[in-house]
């Protein structure tokens, strides 16, 4: 089955989207390698296509902190495993240094990467979201994981790429 990984720094809304995508409570926790933060797997389907979803911990590049290194490792695993990578950022915060570090790595990944600008809850945020073009990733969607707006278009594109 094809795998979709959701990556991005902490608090952008990855788990909120994940929970929305899997709907059914099929998430399982991966205790392998005793990682400090869990990876969650779930099953989803859209337009008749089934796929697995991985929700990852945050991603911090170039940190000496062991905890952050573990998270980093988990995301690298997700990148290896995934057929499509959803890179989530937060329109409320704008671009952070951490987003730029992740983007730099993802620009080198030879797999489809979709930039998902989350927390676009109102028209003003839709305007603010343009700045994320500066991350240099071609595919760009805006959404609100809490309300669900924009998730349909994102899913249409994800399953097209599977
Ligand atoms: P993660 O660390 O990337 O997994 O982020 P979470 O899914 O745990 O969400 C972090 C916080 O952002 C929570 O308080 C969510 O309720 C909030 N959040 C997630 N999606 C949205 C959204 O679309 N709009 C707003 N306003 N808040 C959101
Ligand atoms: Mg989370």
From TrEMBL:
The keyword Nucleotide-binding applies. Belongs to the TRAFAC class TrmE-Era-EngA-EngB-Septin-like GTPase superfamily. EngA (Der) GTPase family. Associates with the 50S ribosomal subunit. Keywords: GTP-binding, Nucleotide-binding, Repeat, Ribosome biogenesis. GTPase that plays an essential role in the late steps of ribosome biogenesis. GTP 1 binds at residues 8-15, 55-59, 118-121. This is GTPase Der. Coiled coil: none annotated. It comes from the Bacteria. Residues 2-162 form the EngA-type G domain.
């Amino acid at each position: 089955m094809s795998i979709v990984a959701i990556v991005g720094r902490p608090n952008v809304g990855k788990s909120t989207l994940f929970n929305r995508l899997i709907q059914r409570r099929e998430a399982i926790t991966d205790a392998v390698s005793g990682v400090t933060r869990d990876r969650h797997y779930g099953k989803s389907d859209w337009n008749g296509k089934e796929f697995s979803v991985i929700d990852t911990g945050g991603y911090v590049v170039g940190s000496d902190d062991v905890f952050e290194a573990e998270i980093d490792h988990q995301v690298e695993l997700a990148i290896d495993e995934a057929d499509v990578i959803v890179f989530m950022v937060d329109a409320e915060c704008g671009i952070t240094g951490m987003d730029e570090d992740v983007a730099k790595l993802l620009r080198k990944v030879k797999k489809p990467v979709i930039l998902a600008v989350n927390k676009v809850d109102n028209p003003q945020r839709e305007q603010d979201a343009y700045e994320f073009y500066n991350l240099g990733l071609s595919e760009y969607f805006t959404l609100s994981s809490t309300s669900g707006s924009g998730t349909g278009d994102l899913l249409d594109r994800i399953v097209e790429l599977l």
